[in-house]
Amino acid sequence: MSRTINQRMTLADWTILLVLSGFWGGSFLFIEILLRELPPFTMVLGRVGFAGILMYAFLRATSRRLPGGAAVWRSFFVLAALNNAIPFVLFAYGQTYITSGLASILNATTPLWGVIVTHVLTADEKATGGKIAGVVLGIAGVVVMIGSDALSGLGSNVLAQLACLAATLCYALASVYGRRFKKQGIGAWEVSTGQLLAATVLILPFSFVLEQPWTLPALSTATILAMAGFVLFSTVIAYFLYFKLLENAGAMNSLLVTFLIPIPAILLGTVFLGESLEPKHYAGMALIALGLAAIDGRPLGWLLSRGRASKAGQPG
Fold first, then answer.
1. Residue 106: which of 84, 87, 126 has the closest Cα?
2. Are 258 and 174 in contact (CB under 8 A)?
3. Can you tell me the distance from the alpha carbon of 19 to that of 118, in angstroms, rounded to the nearest whole number?
4. Quick check: 88 and 44 in contact, CB under 8 A?
5. Which end of the chain is more exposed for a tag (fewer CB within 10 A), N or C?
6. Which of 46-60, 73-87, 181-195, 294-308 has the least mean pLDDT?
C-alpha cells in the first residue's frame, strides 16, 4: 500500500521546491534569447525533444528501462497532453493577444485550481482555510511583483485570457493525474522521460505544419547555448525534481512552485539583462512568503503555541 501524501512539506521538499523554482524561473531568460531566432512551437519541440532523448539515454546508461504496455503509455500521453502540449498551445495562443505580465498573473492561479482539483479528486489533499488564504496571498504577491499595470488589459481579449486559465487548470489536473505513477511503482525519472517523449510526439505536428523548422537559418552560438541550458536545467533536471516533489509532497504542494517562479526570473533579469529591483518586487516576495507560510501551517501554529504559552505563564 502506498503511503499517504505529506500535507506539510519536509525540509527536503522545500529545498526541492526552491531549486525547482530557480530552474523554471531561469527558463524565462532562455526563452527570451531563443525567441529571437526560433518560432514558439519549434522552440518547445526542441525543448521536450532533446530533453526526452537525453533522459532516455541516461536511463539506458544506468541499466533502467521505460515501462512497457499500452496502458502505461496511454497514461504518459495523457500526462504529456495535460502538462505540456495543451497548456503550451493555449499559452502560445493567449500571449499573442495579451501581455506577458498578465499571462504571468493568470499562470499564478494554478495553485488556486490545485486547491479545487485536489479537494474534489483526492482523499488526502483536502482544502483547508490555510491553503485558501495562502493561495490568495500568493496570487496577490505575484500581482504586486509584476505590477498592477499588467491588469490593465483584464477586461479585453477575454478568449485569450480564458485560454491561459484553461492552461493553468490543465497543470492542476496533471499534478493530480501524475500521482498514479507512484502507485504503479514507476519512478520520477521514468515518468519524466515518458512524459517528454510523449510530448514530443504531440507537439511535433504543430511545429512542422505551422512553422516548417527546416526552413530556418542557421542558429547563432547564443541560441544554441540557451537551448542547451533550457533543455538541461529547465527541463531534464527540473521535471525530475517536479515529479520527485509530486511523489513526496502531493499535487497541491508541487504547484506552489508557480508562486516562486517570478522571484528567480526577476533576480536573473537583474543580473543578466540589467533590470533593477523595485520596492514592488520586495513587497511581492514578502506576500508570497506569507502565502507559503499559511499553506504550510507550521509558522502560524508556532506563533499560536507561543501565544498560548505566554498567556499561561501570566499571573491570573
1. 87
2. no
3. 24
4. yes
5. C
6. 294-308
For residues 265 and 28, the answer to whether their CB atoms sit within 8 Å is yes
**Residue 251 pLDDT > 70, yes or no?**
yes
Alpha carbon distance 161, 133 (integer Å): 24
Residue 116's Cβ-count burial label (10 Å; 0-12, 13-18, 19+) is middle
Question: Is 70 exceeded by the pLDDT of residue 48?
Answer: yes
Q: Specify the higher pLDDT residue, 298 or 27.
A: 27
pLDDT tens for residues 94-132? 877 876 667 777 787 888 888 888 888 888 788 788 888
Q: Is-contact 291 144, C-beta < 8 A?
A: no
C-alpha cell at 9: 512539506
What's the CA gap between 115 and 131, in Å, rounded?
7
